[in-house]
């Protein structure tokens, strides 16, 4: 359990934790959010052990998948006790989700080449390379896990999908402002149409996730919102004059 340091005088009632200068009953009265040691062991979270556990979990997810993953196996591979894992993660699902997100985050920034279409293409090709490799199996396992555990679904959506949605929608909006795309296009729907076929192929194995497929998607999806006569930006005018 995590405890936070708090001035004992700020607790409006005499809880039994005041003897340790900690209060669990009224966290809204916290004065200092300083993380302190686990009261059961007196130990702080060891960063080296923490990283070793997450590294071991991610490698084992790639090797054997989520179903065969065990906390005993992770502990042995990381060189820690099983109790250490339980002290920091409530279950295997929470550990696996954090290991996945740690491995794939942060998302590489989407550049601004002057062409929103080209920037989106580069992003989607990077995505296909990631999901087309061994890491794709881990993402598939986590998506499947998220269907049965609401908290895992929330974490996956908030930490994995939403940052990508915001980044891609921002590029689409930039393209609309520059005259590449229709301004009335539903940009969140465009994101769904770009990501859904990739994730569908990942989950079902119904087709390859490669450059050819990405190019076909881009032509179909972005072509539906592209303006027939894009407005020339200063950079494009300069390049044409050159």
TrEMBL record:
| Signal peptide as annotated in the record | none
**Which Pfam families is this protein grouped with?**
TetR_C_11, TetR_N
> What would you give as a GO molecular function for this chain, any one?
DNA-binding transcription factor activity
Which domain of life does this protein belong to?
Answer: Bacteria
Give me the positions annotated for DNA binding: 70-89
Q: Where does the HTH tetR-type domain start and stop, copy by copy?
A: 47-107
- Does the keyword field hold Transcription regulation? yes
Q: Which UniProt keywords apply?
A: DNA-binding, Transcription, Transcription regulation
Which named protein is this?
Answer: TetR family transcriptional regulator
Source organism per entry reads Herbaspirillum aquaticum
Q: What taxonomic classification does the UniProt entry list for its organism? A: Bacteria, Pseudomonadati, Pseudomonadota, Betaproteobacteria, Burkholderiales
